[in-house]
Amino acid sequence: MPTAMLLHAHPDDEVFANFGWAYDLASRGYDVIGVIATGGEANELHATASLREARTRRIEKYERALDMLGASAWTWLDASAGWVDAPSGPSLAGAAPDQLRVGVERLLTQHRPDIVLTVGSDGLTGHPDHVAIARALSTATNRGSVPEGVWGARLRADDVRAGGVLVGSHAREVQVGSGRVVGTTARLVARDVRSSAAARRRALDVYREGLGTDSLESIVSGADRIGDSIVLRGVFDATGWGQEYYEAVSPDHGSTAARQNAAC
């Protein structure tokens, strides 16, 4: 059975970045495994002051989302590192690059995935933790051993602008997003992910009630701030939920046949 690895900084990155392609791989018989570096605690600290409880809450959501995606299991990038997504504690972005690279190399050696899906060189959203993950994969000395390639999700600049306009049409003098989500004008590989759209909407709901299935207008009007997750929802709506875009994390990512298989 071929193996697909989803490698990310936080729980929920797999839904925003790679859900469609991963869903397709699972439906085609790939054993899909998730890898995260932190527990995504920041998104749960509004509900609890306990970092441990925040991690537990987020991991429960991660496991539910992976079930919807068709993944079989998940693991930590480096369980001994103690990285957290929180105002205090060791951060992924602050980790030594060599530590991240070695962790990635260890995972690739251990699991020998046929394909790896992650975020592109800009981290998809510009988040420093995301960028650190993309950099670690790009510098891993054994990344060339992945037969079907290492692929990073990107957004097109035109789609980001369209999504921002759509979100902004429902906002009233409120800042929209962090400003880090900008997209790219570079040529990307497109994946048709229409078959996974409904499941992706439900998976977004796991992380934030209604984020995938409520109307964008109701999400914006009910939010105390317009974060990047809402910006990405706007991008999905603006583009029809039908495609994901990718760049090869390294130019020697795999065979010509693998590249042709990835292209639409």
TrEMBL record:
The keyword Zinc applies. The lineage of its organism: Bacteria, Bacillati, Actinomycetota, Actinomycetes, Micrococcales. This is PIG-L family deacetylase. It comes from the Bacteria. The keyword Disulfide bond does not apply. Keywords: Zinc. Pfam families: PIG-L.
